[in-house]
Structures are given as C-alpha cells and as structure tokens.
Design brief:
With 171 residues, the chain is mainly alpha-helical. Helix content is 67%, strand content 0%. The N terminus is likely disordered.
Length: 171
C-alpha cells in the first residue's frame, strides 16, 4: 500500500511535466517512469521521451517502460479509480483502452462522472439561489426606503351649518 501511495505521488509529480529534460534522461528509471505514467492516467509517452533523450544520444528502454506501464495500467484501471477519476470530471486518455481494463474502469468512471454532473448542477443552483437572495434583499431595501411614512394631512375643521332658526329670522 505504501508503494502505491509513493508511486501515486511520484506520478502526480511527473504528470505535471511535459516530458524529460535531457539531463534527466541520463538517470531515468524507465521502469518507474512507465508505471508512474500509467498511474497518472497518462497515455504512453515514449515518443516524447525518445525525442527529448535523443537530443543527447540516449534511447529509452522501451521494453522495460512498456512492461511497467502495463503493470501501472492494471493498477490504475480499476472500478474504484474510475469512480474517483469520474468525480473530477472529464478524462481523456487511452490508458484503460485494453480488454479487461476498460470495462471496470469505465463502469466506475460513468458512476463517478454522474456524481460530478450532479455536483456541478448543485453548485450552479446554489449560485443561482445566492444571486436571487441578493436581488431579493436589494429589492427589500429599495422598498423600505420608498415606504417612509407620508406626513399627516391636517384635517379642515367642519363648518357649522347655519341653524334653521337663524334662516327664519332673516326672513
């Protein structure tokens, strides 16, 4: 288990590199590189290694690289790993495109990718909710500022009607 974790860590480190520097070719461990490339979910990189190492006259040990790459592919292309890779989103590699490796990895990947899509949809909906809550709060604040009470209108006093008796007196 420790070996897998160490190699996984190494594979992440190597995955960040496009290929090898010519000086690295002199001390390259082709067995470790093959295994690490597969464990990183990368396609075979021998063409890159041949190009980079050929600059200083070094030829990668293709047989050792391919053998260990195949071992790494067997360790990488599991249902569980497919599920984890799927949870991270898209995956564009042919490392698992071999009979016996593709099926379990693909099954796990589909399950993990479905989870990824649900998480993406949930995140989008949460973002929409936050935006709507912000707009609602802005509208509430705007409504509060419009609802300042109007000053009370003074009422005019009622005019007293002229009593009927006074009308008679005027006649």
């Amino acid at each position: 288990m420790k070996r897998v974790m160490i190699i996984s860590g190494l594979s992440l480190l190597l995955a960040s590199c496009a290929s090898l520097e010519p000086e690295e070719c002199k001390t390259a461990d082709w067995e470790r590189l093959g295994y690490a490339d597969a464990m990183a979910g990368r396609d075979i990189r021998l063409a890159d290694y041949n190009k980079d190492c050929g600059k200083i006259g070094i030829t990668p040990n293709e047989q050792v690289y391919k053998r260990s790459y195949d071992q790494g592919a067997k360790a990488f292309c599991t249902y569980e790993n497919g599920r984890e890779v799927g949870k991270r989103g898209s995956f564009d590699s042919k490392v698992c495109d071999k009979p016996g490796l593709a099926e379990p990895f693909k099954k796990g990947y589909i399950e993990g990718y479905d989870y990824y899509l649900i998480q993406q949809k949930l995140a989008h909906q949460q973002s929409e909710i936050r935006e709507l809550e912000k707009k609602l709060k802005e509208q509430e604040n705007a409504n509060k500022s419009k609802q300042t009470p109007a000053p009370e209108q003074p009422q005019e006093p009622e005019q007293n009607p002229v009593p009927e008796q006074s009308k008679e007196l005027d006649n």
